Amino acid sequence: MKKQTLAATIILLATVAFALIPLFRRNVDFPIPVHHALHAAMMAGGALAGIFFAGSLMRERRGGAAWLIVAMFAPVFAMLLMWPSEYSYFELHPYGHAAEHLGLTFLAFVAGYGGQRYANGIGWAFGIGIVAMALLAIGGYGVGPAITTPVAAAPSQSNATAAPNVTHGSALFTQNCAVCHGVGGAGGEGPPLKNERSRKTLAAAEAWIENPAPPMPKLYPATLSAQDVADVAGYVETLR
Fold it and tell me: Which domain holds residue 185?
């Protein structure tokens, strides 16, 4: 076996083992930037293995333009797999999480292998590019900024709040909270909020929203009114 082939095999096996960690360490909630850093490491291993495998082939076996097209589209699909809105699902489903990691490793392998098959050195360009994409994503790829303008507030009294308007609270939650806590409170960069009723009373939930502990942002009273807080807390209490 050629040295390049042996090196590629070792790197690929090590990367695959790293990608399967969610099967053995479940319910580990990483912030989105850490997710991207781990993805970058997996893709670096996949791309390097692909480059070495392609490099072990004889020069006269270089591929045609089809390999270049394949290498160009691999990073696009990798970006879709790294979309943060999917993280809440992957955190709760280890097999899906591992499948996502294997997909990223495979796409990086394709980028490196396909580019190198097309022409010597092109695989390195695509490999560096797909890893750089993941590293740049650490800055906030796919994460929208917190909404600073509240939606139309439900009618409220001057110094007291009405009963929670769950429908209004759901809309506020989607605009201000789902980016961290996931759609329907399933969890994401922030913890899941399903069955929060078993942990906090409505009053306690309102108090937490008004004065949260970092890194949760304080949206009251600049963004959310007292009635908005009551509506969001009332909605959270309905999550199951």
Answer: 166-236
